[in-house]
Design a protein that fits this description.
Keywords: Copper, Disulfide bond, Endoplasmic reticulum, Glycoprotein, Membrane, Metal-binding, Monooxygenase, Oxidoreductase, Signal, Transmembrane, Transmembrane helix. The protein has 605 residues and is mainly β. It has five helices and 43 strands.
Amino acid sequence: MYVCFWRRSSSWKFCQFFSLGFSHSTILDPHGKYNLKWRFDRRTITFEIEVETRGYIGFGLSPNGAMASSDIVIGGVTDGTPYLQDYFADANRKVHRDVQQNYRLQYGRENSTHTVLAFSRHLLTCDTSDKDITVLRVIWAYHSEDVGPSGPMYHGVNRGRKSMRLLDPGSKANISSEMDFFNLQNINVPVPFKDTTYWCQIFKIQEVQKKHHIIRIEPLIQRGHENLVHHILLYQCDSTLNESELKAGHECYHPNMPDSFLTCETIVFAWAIGGEGFTYPPHVGLSIGTSIDPVYVLMEVHYDNPAFQQGVVDSSGLRLFYTPELRQYDAGVIETGVWVSLYHMLPPGMQEYISEGHCTRECLQESLGQEMPSGVRVFAVLMHAHLAGRAIRTRHFRGQEELQPLSHDEEFDFNFQEFQLLKDERLLLPGDNLITECKYTTKDRQNMTWGGLTTRDEMCLSYLLYYPRVNLARCESLPEIIGQLKFIGVKEIQVPVTTWPFMIKSPKKYSSLSFTEAMDKYRWSKNRGKSFNQMVLQLPMNVRCSKWGQDEWSIQGTIVSPPEVKSEVKPPSTMCRSASEPHSGVVLLFTMCLTYSIVQTCLSL
């Protein structure tokens, strides 16, 4: 911002530009023309946008990446004077000037090629036309002309969207230059000429002679590809893989991908665009070098190429910092939610369908009761679904009491998934139980959606990072299949079961069909889908309670009823702050004026 000082006794004037100091940054467009910086405190978020244009700049927050129902700010610089207006778009995408102007212009400037705007807003404004700043789709646009008397002209192709976690983009740790690291890095991957590509490759973890702790993982993005690499997931694989599998990468979820990819199921790390890496708490590290530690991992890279760039070759990946100076605790990962199976099914044409995956009290009682009776502490959570997913919550129960959710995301985006540190660690005790609740939309689908590994299949999972590590890999459930088949009128299946999916024997209309074909043949409607959903949530469920590798706790495979839930605890709400409250930037300038003993101060914006 520009600050100007006067002395009352003379015409002396001194002006200087002060940078606001931004701690986070990203590039939003494929060509590097739209650059975003931001910083925040507990009350306010401040943005600086630099765009290769001399016209207007548009920036917005959207619930789904579309223009409809978005919160928008538009500004620019005309004849050396910056301007900024707060807008919103209604459900029909019509743009209106917001009566309550909550965005505050900090400064603006332009040169012969670029325009820079900085502005701020309270995190929570209590304006129904504004969006609370949580996990949001950022939308952006720009034009070569400034806003005229009739409003902004249509931006044409100069627009886009990105999902970003503005308030928790990760942390830049103070890592010593002497600390060892190793890279998991793709080498010259030819990015296909299409919108979305998932590329997978298996790597071997760095070999060490004794136990070490990984204490930080950060993205290693090829220069100029900051907007191309959208997210990176790291899965732990079977430790008995043949090392010949390490050589070649392949498109993930492809019919011809190597079978070894299917052994890599548990997510151990996730990064998404805008994130700056993950630092383990100072008392926790990810162990490598012992017989029970990961040996092989699969790295999945999501390439986002909406501009259909051709001839792009990428060598991005991850950098993992490790140390022989061991932390107090080893970190572990527990996969909770719905056991991935064809028995998890979603009818077509549903505006909303809810699945629940239970980490049962029986599983936690047996596993934690034997391994860690005092409980374990969860410090980060990643919630995972596929393309039909719209919202996920990880609910936590102790006895008859429901605690605050471990995590929740009411605007889930498949293309933006990463571990999020909890504000406060959560104690998980023997006898507790968790419910991962997923809301889906299948309104545009004509056939059943099945639980499975591909992006058109579905999952409903929560991955919990916790300490100290215990021998519990998965704590999940699956609704009983017989009850689901009875809903569509199945009376008998063919036995013995010799094929998968198994075959139906009666009634005649389903005879010799697999159960998946029978489910697809059923004439689904919205009302039938809703009744099916209500019935499935009450069905007895199969417990999955597995150790590392192929071992199981004794409770695995038993049938239990879902717990009775008396009440539902909502995430804590935040108190609204009046838009008329003094702005922190003004207070800062007033304090600076007193410090310099200047009689009169002004902002030259």
